């Protein structure tokens, strides 16, 4: 866990320590105390600021001068744009064609060069971004497939959760590329061997579930139409290798179930959250998280959602 401790030191005073809030309604539904880790209240609207601060602050002077290339479904790009502007680092961010408009505009407003892909899916867009980084000699900043990202995005988050909610033993985590889930699971299982880790995914893009079934990381999946862009696509090798022996269950949620969870959090807690982050709440509401026998924490990973998307969710 030394890398997590290093990440915590790097993040000190540069991000928010987001609160944990009890949810009476989810506790009633689950039959045990349930808490929400409100990373939706984080700077730039998601947990991704943790990894962006840590990785960008460790770049050498020459890489800072050249600038970075990255690929993002939105939140990672917004975080990179924010930190890159603070540090004076040029940033080029490739995004899928159907990226959430609020995230796209947020990246532009922060001064990044944003390249909208010809592809709908994350995986194809990332391939183009990596090719551009290699062609131009700039470092490619992965959104999830790196030990530094796991340590900062998931490890530091887990450390806060375990300190602020020491009785919790079940942890529900959104899983896309596994930058959050992998780091969180590593830290939590190291500190609490009896911790239960539940990965929550979109049913149409179940990279973690497929990877566990096949015994190897499913790095790419066909694009799917979803408002939960952060859950779409393949899983990273780094995160999967960490999750493989530590993930106790996977919950697969539909678009409609995710929409219901967004509405539930808005109604019961008055927080607007994005669909990708609502998957953990959906897992509890539907019972797909399985039987929870100890206090649980559902990580709410972000809030960045465009108004047209919100209208669709509320009208459904």
Map the helices and strands:
Elements: H1 2-11, E1 20-22, H2 24-30, E2 34-38, H3 48-57, H4 61-66, E3 68-71, H5 75-87, E4 91-95, H6 101-109, E5 113-116, H7 122-136, E6 140-141, H8 147-164, E7 170-174, H9 179-191, E8 196-202, H10 207-214, H11 237-243, E9 249-253, H12 255-269, H13 275-285, E10 296-300, H14 307-315
Parallel strand pairs: 2-10, 3-4, 3-6, 4-5, 7-8, 7-10, 8-9
Antiparallel strand pairs: 1-2
Helix pairs in contact: 1-8, 3-5, 3-8, 5-6, 8-9, 9-11, 12-13
Estimate the global geometry from the Cα principal axes.
globular
Largest β-sheet summary: 6 strands, mixed
Query: How do the SSEs run, as a string of H and E?
Result: HEHEHHEHEHEHEHEHEHHEHHEH
Q: What is the helix fraction of residues, given as a range?
A: 40-55%
Query: Which spans have pLDDT < 50 for at least 5 consecutive residues?
Result: none
How much strand? 5-15%
Task: Return the average pLDDT rounded to an integer.
Answer: 97
Write up this protein.
This protein is an alpha/beta fold and 316 residues long. The protein has 2 domains: 2-47 and 146-315, Rossmann fold, CATH 3.40.50.1100; 48-141, Rossmann fold (3-Layer(aba) Sandwich). The protein contains 14 helices and 10 strands. The chain has helices spanning 2-11, 24-30, 48-57, 61-66, 75-87, 101-109, 122-136, 147-164, 179-191, 207-214, 237-243, 255-269, 275-285, 307-315, and strands at residues 20-22, 34-38, 68-71, 91-95, 113-116, 140-141, 170-174, 196-202, 249-253, 296-300. The strands form 2 sheets. Strands 1-2-10-7-8-9 form a 6-stranded mixed beta sheet, sandwiched between helices. The protein has a 4-stranded parallel beta sheet with strand order 5-4-3-6, sandwiched between helices. α1 (2-11) crosses α8 and α3 (48-57) packs across α8. The longest helix has 18 residues, at 147-164.
